[in-house]
Design goal:
single chain, alpha+beta, 5-stranded antiparallel beta sheet, 5-stranded mixed beta sheet, 18% strand
Length: 515
C-alpha cells in the first residue's frame, strides 16, 4: 500500500459511522454530506444509496487497479459506473450492506477516495494522454505527481474554504482545462510551465489569471504552496457561495492579488520544495511498428505502442461492459485505462495486435462521432443536488438524432450539466445546457438554459453565455432542426456558425418562445 492509502484508511471508521447512521435514516442527507464528502462519497437522490468517487491523478488507472475494480463490481453487483469530467471513476447506487467492505477493498488496492469531495484539493486533471502522446511538449507526469503528493498531505491538516482544483497540460490543446482551474500548469515547448490561477466553472465562472511565465518545472511546488496560502488565508469562510478562488482577484483587486500571490511564492522558495529527478511515465514494453488504418487507434510516443479511444455514451459504460473490457485486457502487459476530461477513456500501452483487438471490442460500444461524444453529468435522477436529468436529456437528443445519421461535424459535441455546479462543463462548449426551470402559464416546467459560444482551445478560451431557456421536451427537436439546417448547407457546424449567426439566433429564439 502507498503511504496515503495507509494514512487515509485510518480515517475510514469516521466515515463508516456516518454511513451507518445515514442508511438507518438516523442522519439527515446534508449532515451526512458534511462528513462523507471528504471521503469521496455522496448520498444519492432518495437518501437510500451512495456514490463513491475514486481519484486518479491525470486520470491514469493502472492494471492492478483495473483488475480490482472488476472484482469490486462483480462481487458487490455495482449497478452503475461513470467516468467524470474531473477524470475520476464513480461507482453508483451503493447500498448500506456493502459500503464498508467495498471501501476497504478499494483502499486495499491503492484506490483512494479521500478528498475527492467536499472542501479539499480534488483530483488533479490533465489531458489524459500525458507521457504517451506523440505531440506533447514534455512528460509532465513526475511534476503532476509531485503536486498531487503535496496536496494529499494537506488533506485533514489544512482547512480549505472550498474545493480546490488543479490541472496540468503537456501541450497547448486545452483538454486538461488548465486555464479554468484554481491552479493550472501549462507546458511550453522549451520545457517550462506557465502558471494560471483563480479560474473555475459554476456560478460566475472565470478564466484563470496568469501569475508566472516559463517557470522551471522543479519549482512547481512553490506555486502550489502559494495557491494554498492565498486561498486559505484570504477567503472569509463565511460566505460559502463566494469562497472559490476565482473571487479573490475581484475581492482583493487584480494587482494586489498578484502581489500577494508572488510574495507567497518567494516565501515558499525559502523551503526545500524543489522537485528533483521526477519520475516520469516509465514504459518498458515495446512492439512492432505498424501503420493502422483505424481512427480509434493512435500511436504513442513509445515506438510500437498504441492507445485506443473509448467513449461510452455519457461516460457511463454498463457494469457488464466494463467487466468484459477488463477481462479482455487482463493478459496485456502494462495496460492502463486513462480517463479524459470529456468522459472519453483511452486504453493505453498496447501493441498493434492488442490495439486492434480492443478497438474491435469497443467499436459498437462507443460513440462514433464527435456529436455522440457529448458530455453529461449523471443528472438529477441520481444526484441529490441536481435540478434536471442531464443524462436523460443526452439520451433523448441522441435518440432523436439517430434516424437522421448526421455526418461527422454537422453537430458539435454538446456539454450538459444538471445544475449550475457545471459538472458537465457546459460553459466550455460551443453549445451547452444547464438544468433550469421555465415559467409557463405561471407554473415552473422542466427546462435547460442554453449556453453558446464557449471555447476551451488554448489562446481562444471563452466561456459560453446564456442566451435562452428551452423546455426540456423541445430540446431534441431543436438539435435535430439545427443539424438538418447545417447538413442542408453542406458544411459543418463550426464553419456554418461563422457565417450564419443570425440564422442560429432566430432558431434559438423560436425554441426559447415555444410552449
Amino acid at each position: 500500500m502507498s503511504k496515503w492509502t495507509v494514512l487515509f484508511k485510518q480515517d475510514l471508521p469516521t466515515f463508516f459511522d456516518a454511513a451507518d447512521k445515514f442508511y438507518k435514516q438516523e442522519m439527515k442527507p446534508n449532515d451526512y454530506k458534511a462528513i462523507s464528502g471528504g471521503f469521496g462519497n455522496y448520498g444519492e437522490r432518495g437518501a437510500k444509496s451512495t456514490m463513491i468517487r475514486c481519484r486518479f491523478s491525470g486520470g491514469v488507472i493502472n492494471k492492478n487497479q483495473l483488475l480490482a475494480f472488476r472484482e469490486v463490481i462483480k462481487t458487490y453487483h455495482v449497478p452503475m459506473v461513470h467516468f467524470t469530467t474531473c477524470q475520476c471513476l464513480q461507482l453508483h447506487h451503493i447500498t448500506g450492506d456493502i459500503i464498508e467492505p467495498l471501501m476497504n477493498e478499494l483502499y486495499d488496492n491503492n484506490i483512494l477516495t479521500r478528498g475527492a469531495g467536499s472542501d479539499n484539493p480534488r483530483n488533479i486533471t490533465s489531458s489524459g494522454l500525458i507521457g504517451i502522446e506523440k505531440d506533447e511538449y514534455f512528460d509532465v507526469t513526475g511534476y503532476m505527481n509531485a503536486v498531487s503528493e503535496y496536496l494529499l498531505g494537506t488533506i485533514g491538516t489544512v482547512k480549505y474554504p472550498r474545493k480546490m482544483k488543479v490541472s496540468f497540460s503537456s501541450s497547448n490543446d486545452g483538454s486538461g482545462h488548465t486555464r479554468i482551474r484554481d491552479l493550472g500548469y501549462l507546458a511550453n515547448t522549451d520545457g517550462t510551465f506557465d502558471v494560471y490561477t483563480a479560474g473555475g466553472l459554476g456560478p460566475n465562472p472565470k478564466i484563470g489569471v496568469k501569475v508566472a511565465d516559463h517557470i522551471d518545472p522543479k519549482d512547481v511546488l512553490y506555486y502550489a504552496e502559494a495557491m494554498v496560502r492565498i486561498f486559505t488565508e484570504h477567503s472569509d469562510y463565511k460566505t460559502r457561495a463566494s469562497n472559490r478562488s476565482r473571487y479573490l482577484p475581484v475581492k482583493l483587486g487584480l494587482e494586489e492579488y498578484l502581489r500577494i500571490y508572488n510574495e507567497y511564492v518567494e516565501e515558499a522558495k525559502k523551503k526545500d520544495l524543489d522537485v528533483i529527478n521526477p519520475i516520469g511515465n516509465i514504459i518498458e514494453k515495446t512492439g512492432p511498428v505498424e501503420i493502422i488504418n483505424n481512427w480509434r487507434i493512435k500511436p504513442q510516443k513509445q515506438p510500437g505502442l498504441y492507445y485506443v479511444e473509448y467513449h461510452p455514451i455519457g461516460g457511463t459504460p454498463t457494469p457488464e461492459e466494463f467487466i468484459e473490457l477488463v477481462d479482455l485486457v487482463e493478459p496485456f502487459e502494462g495496460v492502463e485505462l486513462r480517463l479524459a476530461a470529456e468522459e472519453t477513456a483511452y486504453i493505453a500501452n498496447l501493441t498493434a495486435e492488442e490495439a486492434k483487438t480492443v478497438a474491435a471490442f469497443v467499436d459498437n460500444r462507443s460513440a462514433q462521432t464527435t456529436f455522440e461524444k457529448s458530455v453529461s453529468c449523471v443528472g438529477a435522477t441520481v444526484c441529490q443536488i441536481g435540478v434536471r436529468d442531464s443524462h436523460g436529456l443526452l439520451e433523448a437528443i441522441l435518440a432523436a438524432a439517430k434516424p437522421h445519421h448526421f455526418e461527422e461535424g454537422v453537430l458539435p459535441r454538446l456539454y450538459i450539466s444538471g445544475c449550475h455546479n457545471s459538472c458537465g462543463t457546459h460553459e466550455t462548449a460551443s453549445i451547452g445546457f444547464q438544468g433550469a426551470a421555465k415559467l409557463v402559464d405561471k407554473k415552473p416546467v422542466d427546462a435547460f438554459a442554453l449556453f453558446v459560444g464557449g471555447n476551451e482551445a488554448f489562446g481562444s478560451e471563452k466561456l459560453g453565455e446564456q442566451v435562452a431557456v428551452i423546455e426540456t421536451r423541445f430540446i431534441p427537436e431543436f438539435i435535430v432542426e439545427l443539424g438538418t439546417t447545417v447538413r442542408n448547407a453542406n458544411t459543418t457546424f463550426d464553419d456554418w456558425i461563422q457565417e450564419n449567426q443570425d440564422v442560429f439566433n432566430a432558431l434559438v429564439k423560436q425554441y426559447d418562445e415555444k410552449i
